[in-house]
């Protein structure tokens, strides 16, 4: 077992999954700028370690689709004040009649069950700190589109889970806050993953449009996390000006 990740003094601890690039990396940098000790978590350890060194945080390998990986990850962390469930993604843009079951399974495992695994593993620590959970959903959780059924279904599922969790934590009186953030079109490697490395298809998604950057979404997370404990931001929908 590797050494535990321990913040200095009484420093607040944030965990950011999918933290090796894109929105996750930008979020880690924004939170660190606000004084958080940020633990970046993903599968690409080399990228994580570089980011952690630059922000004065920690880097821990994490595969949200693997039970053992999540358990090992949680065992290295003593305190969590903020959990940003950012790991997710899409694969394919096929109509339902041509659905690739492996792509659908990956999307559900990563976006829904991955979020659930990490949340369950860290929940006791979040209860102890009366912490905040931010789930990164998508406008795809609200607006279905042709070819998007697999990703729509996964993000609809994540949104439903987030809504129920918000109700249950409030009813139980744990003082855990739960926020859903729904980004629109953000220029990252999202489309490159969706099109399985086809750069031309990925670039075409963003050409001729205004696009958000990862830093725009990170600023929303930073703001939510900066608010006093009696404030719960329920949902934030963020889109570029030309996306409706």
UniProtKB/TrEMBL annotation:
Keywords: Oxidoreductase. GO terms for molecular function: oxidoreductase activity, acting on the CH-OH group of donors, NAD or NADP as acceptor. It holds the Pfam family adh_short. Coiled coil: none annotated. InterPro entries: NAD(P)-bd_dom_sf, Sc_DH/Rdtase_CS, SDR_fam. Belongs to the short-chain dehydrogenases/reductases (SDR) family. This is Oxidoreductase. It comes from Corynebacterium frankenforstense DSM 45800.
């Amino acid at each position: 077992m590797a050494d535990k990740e321990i913040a200095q003094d009484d420093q607040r601890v944030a965990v950011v999954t999918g933290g090796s690039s894109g929105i996750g990396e930008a979020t880690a940098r924004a939170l660190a700028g606000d004084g958080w000790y940020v633990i970046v978590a993903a599968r690409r350890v080399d990228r994580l370690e570089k980011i952690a060194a630059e922000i004065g945080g920690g880097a821990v390998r994490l595969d949200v689709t693997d039970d053992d990986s999540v358990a090992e990850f949680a065992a290295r962390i003593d305190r969590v004040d903020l959990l940003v469930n950012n790991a997710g993604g899409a694969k394919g843009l096929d109509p339902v009649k041509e659905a690739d079951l492996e792509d659908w399974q990956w999307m559900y495992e990563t976006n829904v069950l991955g979020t659930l695994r990490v949340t369950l593993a860290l929940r006791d620590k979040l209860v102890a700190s009366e912490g905040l959970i931010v789930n990164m959903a998508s406008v795809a959780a609200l607006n279905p589109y042709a070819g998007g059924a697999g990703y729509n279904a996964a993000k609809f599922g994540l949104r439903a889970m987030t809504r129920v969790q918000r109700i249950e934590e409030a009813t139980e009186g744990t003082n855990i806050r739960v926020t859903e953030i729904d980004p629109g079109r953000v220029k990252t490697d999202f489309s490159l993953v969706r099109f399985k490395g086809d750069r031309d298809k990925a670039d075409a998604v963003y050409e001729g449009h205004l696009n958000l950057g990862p830093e725009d979404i990170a600023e929303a997370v930073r703001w939510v996390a900066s608010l006093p404990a009696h404030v719960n931001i329920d949902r934030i929908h963020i889109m570029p000006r030309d996306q409706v």
